[in-house]
Every structure is written in C-alpha cells, then in structure tokens.
Amino acid sequence: MSSTTGLSEETIEEIARHYAAIISLLGEDITREGLVRTPMRAAKAMAFATRGYRQDPDVIINDAIFTHEGSNMVIVRDIEFYSLCEHHILPFFGKVSIGYIPDGRTIGLSKLARLVDFYARRLQVQERLTAQICDIVMKKLGAKGVIVACTADHLCMKMRGVEKQLPATTTVETAGAFTESTTLREEFFNAIASGK
C-alpha cells in the first residue's frame, strides 16, 4: 500500500493497464519511447490526485482541536487546491477561504488546509466541494458559524467546450451565524478582500 496514494501496487498496475488501452485506442503507439512508461506514471498521478477517497478526516485533524475562550472570527484565506471535475476528469483549481466563529474550540490552522485537500483530492464539483468543507468544519468544531468561499478556474471550460479563458467560478457556503447575519458575511468578505 502506497503511503502517498492509499492504493496497493496491484491496483495501480491495473489502472496503468487501462491507461495503456486508452492511449492505444486514441491512435498512439504505446511502445513508442516517450509513451512506454506513461501508463504507470498516469496511474500514479491519478491515484495521488484522488487520495481523498482513502483518507480519514479524524486522522487528518489528529486531535488538533483546542479549547478557546474568545469568539472573534477566525479566517484562513487563499488555501490553494487542485481537483478533478467529475464530468470530464479535467482539472479545476483555485483558492478557498474559510471563516468560523469559535464556540469554545479552535482547530490547528494547517488542519483546515488539509481538510480542503481531503475533499479536493477526488472527482468533484466545485459546489459540492465548498459545501463539504463548510459542513465538516461546522461538525468537527461545533462552531457558532462557518463560511467558505471558493474561486476556481475550470479546464473543462478553458480547453474544451466553450473554450473561454477568462471566466472564474465562485461558490459560497454558510452555516449557523453566517447564514443568519449579513453583517458577518460582509465582515468576512471585506477581510479576505483586504488581505488583513
């Protein structure tokens, strides 16, 4: 079992066989020098890109939740992520900003970035990714409120289909106090826009 992908060598070899078949079906010579090792490299890359399926959020958090007396908003902004669109298996990537209002507990800041990867490293859609991050932070912290904003570029729009290069997609998910308060949402968006 690979520590970086969570898949056995046998499974990765089977995925590589499928990649070899696909490359051949596309009209390429799989025995050509530049392609001989491509199926295995592609299989390992896909296993790494989808490792979120084989991770456990409780292991990721690893008891990094701490007692906290304050109730001011905590924001971690511009967490970069890379994911694969479940419709075309093409990359989409961007940044996630997370805000929450503690209710007696905070989480280690790096764990928020790891939770973003936990959901990003799988076949995904941006709307679900944003909602899943918001939901897990709310559940694991029991926060008064959580807000997640995600902005991403989608290669399924840029390199196929409409082939538009400039559009970016933003999704926002809220829970608790952020759903109820326009003021809190404004405070969050002002903070991430100013970078302070």
Automatic annotation (TrEMBL):
Sequence ranges assigned to domain GTP cyclohydrolase I in this UniProt record: 16-192
UniProt xrefs under InterPro entries: GTP-CH-I_C/QueF, GTP-CH-I_N, GTP_CycHdrlase_I, GTP_CycHdrlase_I_CS, GTP_CycHdrlase_I_dom
Binding site residues for Zn(2+): C85, H88, C156
Pfam families, alphabetized: GTP_cyclohydroI
EC number(s) stated in the UniProt entry for this protein: 3.5.4.16
SUPFAM superfamilies: Tetrahydrobiopterin biosynthesis enzymes-like (SSF55620)
GO terms of molecular function: GTP binding; GTP cyclohydrolase I activity; zinc ion binding
Keywords for this protein: GTP-binding, Hydrolase, Metal-binding, Nucleotide-binding, One-carbon metabolism, Zinc
Reactions catalysed: GTP + H2O = 7,8-dihydroneopterin 3'-triphosphate + formate + H(+)
Record pathway: Cofactor biosynthesis; 7,8-dihydroneopterin triphosphate biosynthesis; 7,8-dihydroneopterin triphosphate from GTP: step 1/1
Any one of the GO CC terms: cytoplasm
Keyword set includes Nucleotide-binding: yes
GO biological process, one term: one-carbon metabolic process
Assembly, per entry: Homopolymer.
Annotated family: Belongs to the GTP cyclohydrolase I family.
HAMAP family: FolE
Name this protein carries in UniProt: GTP cyclohydrolase 1
Organism: Duncaniella freteri
Phylogenetic placement of the source organism: Bacteria, Pseudomonadati, Bacteroidota, Bacteroidia, Bacteroidales
